[in-house]
From TrEMBL:
Name listed for the protein in its UniProt record: FMN reductase
GO molecular function: oxidoreductase activity
Keyword Flavoprotein found: yes
Source taxon at top rank: Bacteria
Species classification: Bacteria, Pseudomonadati, Pseudomonadota, Alphaproteobacteria, Hyphomicrobiales
InterPro entries: Flavoprotein-like_sf (IPR029039), FMN_Rdtase-like_dom (IPR005025), FMN_Rdtase_MsuE-like (IPR019912), NAD(P)H-dep_FMN_reductase (IPR051814)
Species of provenance: Hyphomicrobium sulfonivorans
Length: 237
């Protein structure tokens, strides 16, 4: 439960290590057994860690939060990550009503999300849910790419009372996709930021915990990709 505190194919990626806050240019769960077969074998020499902010605002607290989580994961894993700002991707995505309508640029965004080995998803709370922009992206992906994909869930809102949106709205979306949404989530409100920088040490501490947790799940996925027997999480951490 959240503490109610307070490629790159035709697109530019933001390497989060560079600490740039600039944009990157970037039906019910009745899947058949065939759906459970991954579309691609996981070959993870260098895992792809991708963050997505579902905010259409610029600047965006959600983007700041997602990038902070990516930085924590980079610190734990030693791998670089990339970031997709939906405000950049939206024009390419919104012109498509179905995956077959996607332009080359739109396909590139969707491909990056589908092929990620670890996703960090963030959204502002809009009307007690995630944004329509974020939902549209996940309406365009092929759900078969998401089976067991570790996903970190984060959100920002105006009210601490809407922190459970993550568990009541966002987590079920990734449940449908059969993704592995991680136990620890991060919810931050406007007072947790000063000038679009995180200023609440409790949020920073939670982000650090998420970095450790995400790194553990990424290692487990790496071990699976390398064909080693699945070890208990405690042995991997
Ligand atoms: C259309 C709209 C609807 C919103 N609805 C809610 C809401 O239901 N609950 C809430 O806590 N905050 C709500 N907010 C506030 C935003 O979630 C909050 O300001 C968020 O941090 C903005 O993130 P951003 O800076 O990434 O755009 C809403 C804001 C907008 C623009």
């Amino acid at each position: 439960m959240n503490a109610p505190t307070s490629a790159n194919v035709g697109v530019d990626a933001t390497n989060v290590s560079s600490n740039r806050v600039s944009k990157s240019a970037l039906s019910c769960s009745q899947h058949s057994i065939a759906d459970a077969i991954p579309l691609r074998a996981i070959t993870m020499t260098k895992p792809s860690i991708v963050g997505i902010s579902g905010s259409l605002s610029d600047p965006s607290r959600t983007s700041v939060l997602v990038k902070a989580v990516l930085t924590a994961i980079e610190r734990e894993t030693g791998y670089a990550s990339s970031f997709i700002e939906l405000s950049d991707a939206a024009p390419a995505l919104f012109q498509s009503r179905s995956p077959k309508d996607l332009s080359v640029t739109g396909k590139a965004f969707v491909h990056r999300v589908e092929q990620a080995d670890l996703l960090v998803v963030g959204t502002p709370v809009y009307r007690a849910s995630y944004t329509g922009a974020l939902k549209h992206l996940f309406d365009l992906v092929d759900h078969r790419h998401f089976s067991n994909k570790p996903v970190v869930l984060t959100a920002t809102g105006g009210s601490p009372l809407h922190g459970l949106m993550i568990d009541h709205q966002l987590r079920p979306l990734f449940g449908f996709l059969q993704a592995l949404s991680l136990p620890t989530t991060v919810y931050a409100v406007e007072s947790d930021f000063s000038n679009y920088a995180i200023s609440n040490p409790d949020i920073e501490e939670r982000i650090a915990r998420v970095g450790v947790e995400a790194s553990t799940y990424l290692k487990r996925r790496t071990n699976q990709a390398n064909g080693s027997h699945e070890a208990p999480l405690a042995a991997i951490a």
